[in-house]
Amino acid sequence: HPTVSRFHCRIRRVGHKLIIDDLASTAGTIIGDNQVESARLWGNETVRVGEAWFKLSTKSAPTSEGERVES
User: Fold this and answer.
1) How many whole angstroms separate alpha carbon 53 and alpha carbon 32?
2) Closest Cα partner for 36 from 57, 18, 16, 15?
3) What pLDDT is stored for residue 62 in this prediction?
4) Cβ neighbours of residue 6 under 8 Å, at least 6 residues apart?
5) Distance from C-alpha of 44 to C-alpha of 8, rounded to nearest angstrom
6) Which candidate, 42, 32, 35, places its Cα nearest to that of 8?
7) Which element (helix H / strand E) includes 32?
8) Total H helices, total E strands in the chain
9) Alpha-carbon gap, residue 43 to 51, rounded angstroms
10) What pTM was estimated for this model as a whole?
């Protein structure tokens, strides 16, 4: 999509956490209604990069530090 930068954002795993980082994109990285520079992902979020949307889902989503629930 033309509004998504070549290196727009990244999703990385830190221990049991998933973190999304905006890589200084022009159009921004948005989770729900919030533009973020960096945010923890809990699973089942809707993420917008530029004008493209995707739904993040995980087999098991963390509910709090060290606690996991199978979905």
Assistant:
1) 10
2) 18
3) 55
4) none
5) 20
6) 35
7) none
8) 0, 9
9) 21
10) 0.74
Closest CA to 41 of 4, 7, 71, 11: 11
pLDDT the model gives residue 63: 56
30 forms beta bridges with: 35, 48
Burial (CB count <10 Å: 0-12, 13-18, 19+), residue 41: buried
Give the whole-angstrom CA distance, residue 60 versus residue 23: 26
27, 20, 23, 30: which is closest to 8 by C-alpha? 23
Task: pLDDT tens for the chain, 71 residues: list them.
Answer: 777 888 899 999 999 899 999 999 988 999 989 999 999 998 888 999 988 888 887 766 555 555 444 43
Q: In one letter, which amino acid is 41?
A: L
Residue 49 contacts residue 36 (beta carbons within 8 Å): no
Ramachandran angles phi, psi of 57, nearest 5° = -135, 145
